[in-house]
Specification:
alpha/beta, four-stranded parallel sheet
Length: about 260
């Protein structure tokens, strides 16, 4: 989540990053609380990327929901084991402020796994972790719909080379944290190719100025997005920040 604080990959977390992130988290939580009080749901479904701030925020959501007798389903979008390994590798190099955040996040994560009513995971290693730390909570494995063994790299390359001029697409919010500036820079360097942007386009991003080979399509229905993807040779995702291309994107398209 530090991507929203403009922290570039490899850059150490500073106090200003933490303060800005806390302000953003407060705004998100305030919207959440108002929504729950107004809608009064029976079940709360949380799809978590298991980031440090996100886990801490999720624990507050769950505590609030349980106090209102709302059942909670917690959906782990990635590999729990990989997240823990990442925390361990980064912990030794982190400053004292980040170490405190790491410790809080890990404790909150364990609490979450044991406090929710149902756990959903995407990987087998995540299922094994939950069996150890939250064996009494019902859980379900929903395999990742993207089967890597089915990908033919050579065929993909041939498809790209046979497509002239190349159609390159991006799907998502066209914002700084997702590399909108870098996307436009690439487009300006490759005038012979066509670039399509699908999703919300804030005024700040529009003000950057796009070359003639960039087409902004705005928000589209799911079926139209899939059609545009099939027509394109490449999906371009350029982000200089600490966000990544996780499993959520293909999973959402498959749902």
């Amino acid at each position: 989540n530090t991507a929203m604080c403009n922290r570039v990959v490899g850059e150490k977390i500073k106090l200003c990053n933490v303060v800005n992130e806390c302000i953003r988290e407060f705004r998100i939580m305030w919207s959440f609380f108002k929504g729950v009080l107004w809608f009064k749901p029976d079940i709360l479904h949380i799809a978590s990327g298991m980031g440090n701030y996100g886990v801490i925020r999720d624990s507050i959501y769950i505590f609030f929901a349980k106090s209102m007798s709302i059942s909670v389903i917690y959906h782990y979008r990635g590999s729990i084991l990989r997240v823990f390994h990442g925390l361990q590798n980064n912990y030794s190099r982190a400053n004292s402020l980040v170490k405190i955040i790491y410790k809080i996040a890990i404790k909150r994560f364990v609490w979450i796994t044991r406090s929710v009513d149902y756990n959903i995971v995407l990987t087998m290693d995540s299922l094994h972790v939950l069996r150890r730390i939250a064996h009494s909570v019902p859980r379900q494995l929903i395999p990742n719909p993207v089967i890597l063994s089915k990908i033919d790299d050579q065929k993909s390359v041939e498809l790209i080379l046979d497509t002239q001029p190349l159609k390159i697409v991006y799907v998502g919010a066209f914002v700084k944290a997702k590399g909108c500036r870098e996307f436009l820079q690439v487009a300006s360097r490759l005038p012979q190719m066509n670039f399509f942007v699908i999703g919300e386009i804030p005024d700040k991003s529009m003000a950057l100025g796009a070359p003639n080979n960039v087409v902004f399509l705005g928000a589209l229905p799911r079926e139209e997005v899939i059609r545009k993807l099939k027509e394109s040779a490449l999906f371009l995702f350029l982000s200089p920040f600490t966000t990544d291309f996780s499993g959520w994107w293909p999973i959402w398209l498959c749902c």
